[in-house]
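Page 47, continued from p. 46.
Same chain as before, 321 aa.
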Amino acid sequence: MKAFYISAVGGKTVLEKRDVPQPQPNAGQVLVKVKAVGLNRGEFIVGGLVKAGAAKPAGNEAAGEVVEGGERSGLRAGQRVMGRCPGAFAEYALMDEREAIPVPANLSWEEAASIPLTFMVVHDMLIEQGKLKAGEWLLVTGVSSGVGVAALQAAHALGAKVIGTSGSPKKLEALKKQGLDLGIETRKPDFAKIVLDKTEGKGANLCVNTVGGSVFAECVRALGFEGRLAIVGYVDGVLKGDFDLEAVHVKRLRIFGVSNKQRSAEQRAATVKGFTADFMPLFAGGRIKPLIDRVFGFEDLEKAKAYMESDAHVGKIVVKV
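Result:
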């Protein structure tokens, strides 16, 4: 079968297409014929999911048809599933059957492939850890990213109000249709005053920082009493930021990370259960419709990667296999 491998070369990630044997499922795994794959920025950043060393299978989330496996979970051959999927940029791939989620009939392959990683991260930071409630204010830095758009859509469906930052006025305007209450055109740490003005001096209840250390201190300034700050990315490459101990102390703030790097398979499976219970009815009922910016063919994965790195997209980039 055809599959793409990824490696770190000269400080950049490089893709290589190979002919490799079709994988065989072990106990607890499902073999899936891949139909579509979602792209995620972190999987193309050296030092993120890609380390120096031998090339490894590329891709981390997919949607496809069950070929075999799934005896424990009752999945059957031909069933449409989506989920986290190491080595997803291939014609066939394996999923942990605990993480293979049945796809609602109203979702296309491309829409289904754009959901698993992004929206499970969003569930973690908005619900599991962020405790976002209807009527609260959510602030999203870098709101036009895949995670940013998903956070906006989910928060809007939950009844929260959303403020987002982006350097592109065109992207902010497009996101009004997704429920964005206020767009702040900036790539700088200069948005706290606007957030405080919009919230009548109370500040945001929850902030999702997809940008990184360059805006960390400003996120803290933009939070209100008992505010929560989620650290989910650092596309600016800045891994440190000024830490205002007094603000964290006085405002009783909570700062948490959103990552699966060190979580066990059991912990990841528990996340899938919560996500399925809380979010899948929203997808099946049409209350959340994944925003796909562009779909590329399997042979054009290099072009899809370049498009993601150009930062021109709003929402998810998907590859159709």
